[in-house]
Amino acid sequence: MKNDNWPLWEVFTQKRFGAPFEHAGNVHAPDKELALMNARDVYSRRNEATCIWVVPSDAITSSTPEDMGPFFEPSNDKIYRHPNFYKTPGASFE
Amino acid sequence: MLSTTEQELEKKFQERIDKGESIEAKDWMPERYRKQLIRMMGQHAHSEVVGMLPEGNWITRAPSLRRKCVLLAKVQDEAGHGLYIYSGTETLGISREQMLDELLAGKAKYSSIFNYPTLSWADIGAIGWLVDGAAIVNQTVLAKGSYGPYARAMVRICKEENFHHKQGYEILATLMKGTPEQRAMAQDSINRWWWPALMMFGPSDKDSPNSAELLRWKVKRYSNDELRQRFIDRTVPQAENIGLTLPDPDLKWNEERQHYEFGTINWNEFYEVINGNGICNKDRLKARRKAHEEGAWVREAANAYARKKSGETIAA
Amino acid sequence: MTNQEAIFEYCLRIGDTSLILGQRLAEWCGHGPILEEDIALTNISLDLIGQTRGFYDYACQVENKGRTEDDLAFLRNDRDYRNLLMAEQPNGDFGQTIFRQFLISSYYTLFFTALSKSNDETLAALAQKSLKEVNYHLRHSTEWMLRLGNGTEESARRMRTAVEELWMFTEDFFDMNDVDRILLQAGIGIDNSALRADWLHFAQDKMKEAGLLIPEKSFAIRGSREGKHTEHLGHILAEMQSLHRAHPGATW
Predict the structure, then answer these.
(1) DSSP percent split of chain C into helix, strand, coil, nearest 5
(2) Cβ separation of A41 and C36 shorter than 8 Å?
(3) What integer is the mean pLDDT of C146-164?
(4) Least CA distance to A6: which residue of chain C?
(5) In angstroms, how far is CA C77 from the centroid of its own chain?
(6) How far apart (Å, rounded) are the C-alpha atoms in residues A25 and A7?
(7) What are phi and psi of C38, to 5 degrees?
(8) Residue B65 has pLDDT above 90, yes or no
(9) What is the rounded average pLDDT of the residues C112-133?
(10) Structurally, how many domains does chain A consist of?
């Protein structure tokens, strides 16, 4: 039995220092070092990244569409978590 | 027969589509939607990868160092584009290996255009200008399609693809300003590539079995004929600008319709090429099979090494 | 020989080596063992041809006869090419391509590190830029050599064949002629032969990690400094130059 299929890795790139990491796509690779090199060659051909993460695809756990209601709606009504809830003229540092 | 729940789910699904919502990998979707997407995205990805071959044919002979770099970068982009789309398709529960197996077994289709041979350097210009031009018209629309992973891959691809189109036009413009031999080379190339490029949009909508469903699901946003017309309208003035004659005696501007009229496409040729009888079908698949088979020991070795290493880590 | 003439020759050597190796790697485009590797090899090829353009550009400036990069690439014959013999060796299988890349990239890493301290600012700048790229090429080829050397029985056997096929062209890296001596004295060029010990040490170490041994008996093939090549170069140039030469004076 041949074993020439490589596992899948998800690639996250940081566009500039300090910026958040964003999902760019995936690559196939036999191990993490090659995954990193493949991600570099595939997703930063145009100088798009200052740093790259690679994660085995099966290590990612995602919420499901069925979760959508119970997971996210409860935070809908907590408007006091947002700064514009407060009416304090002149107190902003921005 | 669909069960009631499935009917309901499908109704909700269609409502989401109609509202312009984007469908994500884990969302519920009708089985037909999933199948159609796998088919379309698979064909698209295969086209990118097989499409590397006709242009790759001229990399080692590019006539200047600048052209060599541009062509290399472009063909490399196509590998990247194939990869992005395979990557998007994998979210639908089919692996790249499965898709490749289908391609190599001759079961999957890819764009018929890549079964035509590249006979001169001007063909590299024609492919960039016409083939990538047609692809951009298609892909700009696909970038607004309903399936999120596909649409996102298209956004990235469109951004990268613009240079492909421009470099092709630049090659032809340069040839048309060159020696008589160069001009003849350019014209000959357009004579050969024009009609196959028009076929890239697929058969007329009345003969396209998948069109209605794909339009309803907003996988496609415009019909094949509309996109073909859009491409022709944009391309004719560009040909005139550099003195190329498009090989269609019926091509003329219709003031009333505000569109170009054009001659009859030879659909017989299209179906023959799609079904394996083009000049290069066999060579293209042979080349892909050879690369895959000769690469097997490399992929296996890397896996074996990874297993040994992880064994060591566990032992330690 | 003036310093300028020596610099011209020096730039040709570097530019020719990068071009011929880049051309060889470009042959892989569309035919690699997996899509990711197609993209990786093409990236290396693009880096190398980019290096060629930098060194050719400087060669044309110091020569000052109105020649262009394309004149150098497309209108010289094989006896005028100065690339390392290693660069023109056939791709063979993926293992051979990787091993060739490992040998040249490890040598180039030392070479460009030394050249980046050149008195000649242009050469120093070109070397610094190239060094960054070559460092990655070395990483890529070393990682692959480790995997193939230690992977399966088949891959290990193929790597041993690659060593047998290619090792004899390594001495050619370190030869020095008048060009080297003139530029070394002027603080422009580097002491090429002095790199040999470090290089051998490094190559031996990494090869050992990959389970590969340096052949005990190996007759050194050399001659690139004088444009004495293997038969392969003539075919590479015949293909590469055919279109350009078929239309003399044309613009592309």
Answers:
(1) 70, 0, 30
(2) yes
(3) 98
(4) C34
(5) 18
(6) 14
(7) -55, -45
(8) yes
(9) 98
(10) 1
Q: Give the tokens for residue C121.
A: 């600012």
Rounded to an integer, the average pLDDT of B216-229 is 93
- Please check the confidence at residue A65 and state whether its pLDDT lies above 80: no
In SS3 terms, C125-170 reads as HHHHHHHHHHHHHHHHHHHHHHHHHCCCHHHHHHHHHHHHHHHHHC
Let me know: does C39 contact C76? Beta carbons within 8 Å. no
Smallest CA–CA distance, residue C36 to chain A, in Å, is 6
Q: Which residue of B has its CA nearest to C143?
A: B302
pLDDT digits (tens, 9 = 90+) for C39-73: 999 999 999 999 999 999 999 999 999 999 999 99
Residues C164-197 pLDDT 10s = 999 999 999 999 999 999 999 999 999 999 999 9
CB proximity A36 to C under 8 Å: no
- For chain C, the structural domain boundaries read 3-246
Nearest CB neighbour to B84, from listed A3, A25, A34: A25
CB C70 to CB B64 under 8 A?
A: yes
Q: The CATH number of the domain where A42 resides is what? A: 3.10.20.520
Provide the whole-model pTM.
Answer: 0.94
C94-115 vs C121-149: helix crossing angle, rounded to 10: 150
Indicate whether A15 belongs to any domain.
yes
Model confidence at B2, pLDDT cuts 50, 70, 90, reads low
Q: What radius of gyration, in Å, describes the C-alpha atoms of chain B?
A: 22
Instruction: Indicate the pairing of strand A21-28 with strand A8-14.
Output: antiparallel
Domain membership flag for residue A86: no
Q: Is the ipTM of this complex over 0.85?
A: yes
Q: Which chains touch A (3 or more CB pairs under 8 A)?
A: B, C
Question: Has domain C3-246 been given CATH number 1.25.40.10?
Answer: no
Report which of C199, C92, C99, C190 is spatially closest to residue C143, judged by C-alpha positions: C99
> Which ranges of chain B would DSSP assign to H, the alpha helix?
4-18, 31-50, 52-56, 65-90, 96-104, 122-126, 132-142, 148-176, 180-199, 211-216, 224-242, 267-272, 281-315
Q: Which residue do the tokens 């056939």 mark?
A: C90
Are residues B306 and A2, on separate chains, in Cβ contact within 8 Å?
no
Range of the domain at A61: 8-81
User: DSSP code of A62?
Assistant: -
Q: Does the beta-carbon distance from C252 to B64 stay under 8 Å? A: yes
Within-domain flag for A91: no
Answer whether B306 sits within 8 Å of A30, measured CB to CB.
yes
Chain A residues whose CB is inside 8 A of the B73 CB are 45
- Percent of the residues in chain B that have a pLDDT greater than 90, as a whole number: 86
Cα separation, B69 vs C49, in Å, equals 7
Q: Is the pLDDT of residue B314 over 70?
A: no
